[in-house]
Every structure is written in structure tokens, then in C-alpha cells.
Amino acid sequence: MKKTLTLVLAVIIILAGLAGCGNSKNQSNNSSQPQPSSTEQSKTTSPLAEASAANKAGKKTLVVYFSLPETTNPNNMTKEEANSTVVVGGEVLGNTQYVAYLIQKNTGADIFRIEPKTPYPTNHKTLVDLAKAEQNNKARPELAKKVENLGQYDVIFLGYPNWWGDMPMILYSFLESHNLSGKTIIPFNTHGGSGFSNTISTIAALQPNANVIKNGFTVSRNTVQNCADDVAAWVKELGY
Ligand SMILES: Cc1cc2nc3c(=O)[nH]c(=O)nc-3n(C[C@H](O)[C@H](O)[C@H](O)COP(=O)(O)O)c2cc1C
After folding, report:
1. How far is the CA of 161 from the centre of ligand 1 (A)?
2. CATH class of the domain whose range is 4-237
3. By alpha-carbon position, which residue is closest to atom 9 of ligand 1?
4. Distance 144 CA to ligand 1 centre (A)
5. What is the pLDDT of residues 39-85, one digit of tens each?
6. Smaller CB count within 10 Å for the chain: N or C?
7. Cα-flanking dihedrals φ and ψ of residue 41, to 5°?
8. Best mutation site among 80, 84, 99, 162 for ligand 1, i.e. most ligand atoms within 8 A of its Cβ?
9. 110 C-alpha to ligand 1 centroid (Å)
10. Residue 113 CB coordination number (10 Å)
11. Contact 229, 106 (CB under 8 A)
């Protein structure tokens, strides 16, 4: 009899213990703290991924950008080449590329450059004419590659230059071939005077199930080389 009683008590204690584990798991799942994604939990190798996982918002972030510096040579630039570039430590970056790097630096995000399968010309007039023709033809230039493991990202900073009052057509290619549903898209752009034009509404129309932030970051090519502090302040406002 005593043996049976001990056995019954032991079973009750074990069951109570199991119920306790279940409760604490539920509590942590219901917590208002952002939960790391399963990919973040399993990824331990990349320093970038670690920085991203640790960012203040607790969200995994990717910076996606397209940029077309019209030269790679920092010396003897034409006016057009200088207009489309920022030189940092002797390295020539596109204007939007420079802003993308600043965002990455301030957020610890991963970064992805949108590139066409067939490279664009860097001669200014040829490029301007080709871009106009692409726009007129509603072209969808083929991407050199797509984002891998898109599912792991919660926030996408999306950057591009203003081309003919719109996004370059390759941004349409990108947005139509990546499903950003449920993600937050934060646009940024560089321009020669037109700002964003209507591009933010266009992004929202192409990704109707994404949360597209309306107050993105836009900067003129005339002041882009001095925008580091503004970018830092902006991403801080966003919670990074
Ligand atoms: C094909 C082409 C079209 C452009 N169209 C416009 C435009 O309509 N409005 C504007 O403000 N800037 C326009 N620009 C200027 C670019 O937006 C600006 O130089 C930008 O900073 C370039 O960024 P990137 O160096 O990252 O490519 C155009 C530039 C190019 C090459």
C-alpha cells in the first residue's frame, strides 16, 4: 500500500513538472519581446548575421539596393561621372551604394546588390537613352541573381536612384520576382532633384502585403557625400 502511494505521488510530481515546462514555454512565446527567427537561432558563423540578430529592434534586416556609378576611376572624372559617385578612401561608389553602405554600417544588416544579367553601359548618354527606352517598353531587365533565404528577413531597406521620374525598371524586375509579404520595406533613394517621385506608392502597389514605410530617406546627388550623420540619425529614429 505504502509502495503504491509512493508511486502515485511520484507520477503526480512528474506530471506537475511537465505542466510547468509547458507554461513557461507558452509565456515566452506570448511575450511582447520580439522572438528571433529559427534561422537566426541556428546561424552562428557570420559576424554580420550576429550584428543583425543583436540590433535594437530585434529584427533581421537586409539592405537591397541598385546603383550605377558611371565610372570606377577616382581620377579625372567628367561632370556626369562625378554626379553619380562618391569617393570614399580612394574607392568609387555609386551614390545609392554609398547610402546603402551607411545603412548597413548603422544597422548591422546583411546587404544585397541588385545587378542586371546584362550590365548597363556606363557612358552617360547611352545609359540615359537605354533607361528611357526600358521605361517606354515597360522592360523587365533580367536579374543576375535573386536574394537567397529571403524568408529569414523581417525588414528590407530598398534603395535605388531616381531614373526618369521613376525607379529603374530593374527594380520592377526585383519586386515582381521576390515575395515581400509580411515584411517591412523601408525605401531610400538618391536623385538629381526629383526626390522619390511616386516610387513609394509604386512599391506599395507591387508588394500589397508588405508594410511600406512612407517616410523613407531621400538625398540629392549634390549633398549625398555629406549625408552620413543624417543616415545615422534616421536609422536611429527607426529604432536601430
Ligand atoms: C538614366 C538616368 C535617369 C535619371 N533621371 C533622373 C530623374 O528623372 N530625376 C532626377 O532627379 N534624377 C535623375 N537622374 C539622376 C540620378 O537619380 C542621380 O544621379 C542618382 O544619384 C544616381 O545614383 P547612383 O549613382 O546610385 O546610380 C537620372 C540618372 C540617370 C543615369
Report:
1. 5
2. alpha beta
3. 194
4. 21
5. 333 333 333 344 444 454 578 999 999 999 999 999 999 999 999 99
6. N
7. -65, -35
8. 162
9. 25
10. 16
11. no
Compute the distance from residue 211 Cα to the ligand 1 centre, in Å: 26
Distance of alpha carbon 104 from alpha carbon 110, whole angstroms: 7
* Whole-angstrom distance, CA of residue 96 vs CA of residue 114: 12
Q: Closest Cα partner for 200 from 177, 223, 216?
A: 216
Q: Which residues line ligand 1 (CB under 6 A)?
A: 67-69, 83-84, 94-97, 127-128, 131, 161-165, 190-194, 221
Q: Report the C-alpha gap between 137 and 129 in whole angstroms.
A: 12
pLDDT of 150-195, one tens digit each?
999 999 999 999 999 999 999 999 999 999 999 999 999 999 999 9
- The ligand 1 atom at the shortest distance from the C-alpha of residue 166 is 8
Domain boundary assignment for the chain: 4-237
